[in-house]
Amino acid sequence: MAATSRGTSPVPPDVRPRLTVLSGPSGVGKSTVVAHMRKVHPEVWLSVSATTRKPRPGERNGVHYFFVENEEFDKLVANGELLEWAEFAGNRYGTPRRAVLDRLEAGEPVLLEIDLQGARLVRESMPDAQLVFLAPPSWDELVRRLTGRGTEAPDVIERRLAAATVELAAEAEFDTTLVNTSVEDVARELLALMLQASGDRESSD
Ligand code: ADP
Ligand code: 5GP
């Protein structure tokens, strides 16, 4: 099998939606996997984060991110409108709280694609959340993907690779690891994990 998972267990009969967090080093393929999953399953809801980063070519406001200025981000933080937020490689990113809580209250599974710091904060505030780590097949392949994407300047790539060494060292903090060899396989496995019941993590430990 191209994608490997660790720590997963069979789907129990009592399926309740839960919050799933997908993290992994920059360039590993998180956006690609999520985009593929949503192409096959448009009903899957993904939280749209706010960020102070400038849009990449093709990125749309309100679709990929809410692109905001520093002052607007300050306000979101001050007003308690973010479930979590973090600074990553020189920009700030945060998850709008209300939309996530509304979906969970409506009984729908929720997916966050956020960095390691954000994943740790979510674990603290929502211990029932399921943390999924997306790992590269190798370090060299991660470097190839990040540079091959062609969206960041060399100094930004350096910062992101420095962050990646820290993130890769934290893999054991996650409930499950998926290795991104095949986008299709990982997208399928991620969806299956999202549909797993709340509380399953505790009972499978
Ligand atoms: P992230 O969102 O984790 O920063 P991206 O989704 O932007 O990463 O992917 C980084 C680059 O790697 C992109 O050019 C993407 O096309 C490529 N990529 C993603 N998954 C795979 C894969 N399984 N095999 C080969 N290339 C991939
Ligand atoms: P990028 O600039 O490549 O889109 O994202 C950089 C990093 O920020 C990635 O690891 C991505 O998962 C993370 N990120 C995106 N949105 C959020 C968010 O709302 N909160 C946190 N903590 N990280 C985020």
UniProtKB/TrEMBL annotation:
Q: Where in the cell is it found?
A: Cytoplasm
The entry marks the following residues as binding ATP, namely 24-31
The UniProt keyword set, sorted, is:
ATP-binding, Cytoplasm, Kinase, Nucleotide-binding, Transferase
Q: Which reaction does it catalyse?
A: GMP + ATP = GDP + ADP
Recorded GO CC terms: cytosol
Give a GO molecular function annotation for the protein. ATP binding
Q: Might you give the EC number(s) for this enzyme? A: 2.7.4.8
Main enzyme class: transferase
Q: Which Pfam families match?
A: Guanylate_kin (PF00625)
In terms of InterPro entries, this protein maps to:
GK/Ca_channel_bsu, Guanylate_kin-like_dom, Guanylate_kinase, Guanylate_kinase_CS, P-loop_NTPase
Region annotated Disordered, chain positions: 1-27
Q: Which NCBIfam families match?
A: guanyl_kin (TIGR03263)
Task: Please report the name of this protein according to its UniProt entry.
Answer: Guanylate kinase
What is the species of this protein? Streptomyces fulvorobeus
Q: What's the gene?
A: gmk
